[in-house]
Amino acid sequence: MTTIRTIAAHEVVRARFPREVTERDEIGMAVGKAIDETLSHYSHEYAQGRRPTRTGMNRRAEATLDEELAEADVHLPPAERARHLEAIDGVLQAFRRSGLMGLPRPRSRLILINGDAGVYAQPDYWNGRDRIYEMKSFHASPIPPYVLLQVQLFQCAFPGFQAFLAWFDRHVQPVVATIEEAPALGPEAQTAALWLAYRHARSDGVDKVLEFMDSPTVRYTLPATDGGA
């Protein structure tokens, strides 16, 4: 049996760009989770031929928001909570009008590096053929460095796919959809991203037996040195 060290792509990003989590961050993460969970659920429903209502989408998002805030022990004044729900509604409706509605979320893939480190990578959506999409509910142009690293890891996991960043800025009304192709992943950028992921997987990852893992696997072998990066 082969034991490897595994880590998730978002953990690599967090390790590379660490920061103290404030209450504002907790609120932002709760809002983001409410949006992501609701859209993932209703995009699947849409693909099955069912047409979600605005009321139903907002009700689900509101319940998720309240659960996430309670888990983070954050209490919002009614007026602030209402503002966040309005922003969430704006993103949900902009997504409904975009070309992403109905697209599925791909299975998580394992980036296997040098045979002994693995990174789980799962973008938000794909078309099942040649495109992957990562979604953000804030203004993401130019692409922030931490988002770019996340996208680069997805590109490693889905070689040959075009990667797109879809962002819906919830901080402005009306919310509009912006879908832009991410920069192509060149050999140097790919190697740098893989070395970074490899180091964090080896130092911070969790042991798993490769033969018991059923994720689609993409294998890479890195050069003998990372050049001191």
As a percent range, the share of strand residues is 15-25%
Number of domains: 2
Shape: globular
The sequence of SSEs as H and E is: EHHHHEEEEHEEHEE
Main sheet: strands, sense, barrel = 5 strands, mixed
What is the CA-based Rg, rounded?
19 Å
Number of strands: 9
Number of helices: 6
Helix content: 40-55%
Explain briefly what this protein structure is.
The protein has helices at 9-16, 23-47, 54-71, 78-97, 145-157, 187-204, and strands at 3-8, 109-113, 117-121, 125-126, 131-136, 162-168, 177-181, 206-209, 217-220.
Describe this entry's structure for a reader.
With 229 residues, the chain is of the alpha/beta class. It folds into 2 domains: 19-97, no CATH class; 109-220, no CATH class. Helices cover 45% and strands 19% of the residues. The strands form 2 sheets. Strands 8-1-3-2-9 form a 5-stranded mixed sheet. A 4-stranded mixed sheet has the order 4-5-6-7. Helix 5 (145-157) links the parallel strand 5 and strand 6 (162-168). Helix 3 packs across helix 4 (78-97). It is globular.
Topology:
Layout: E1 3-8, H1 9-16, H2 23-47, H3 54-71, H4 78-97, E2 109-113, E3 117-121, E4 125-126, E5 131-136, H5 145-157, E6 162-168, E7 177-181, H6 187-204, E8 206-209, E9 217-220
Parallel strand pairs: 1-3, 2-9, 5-6
Antiparallel strand pairs: 1-8, 2-3, 4-5, 6-7
Tags for this model:
229 residues, alpha/beta
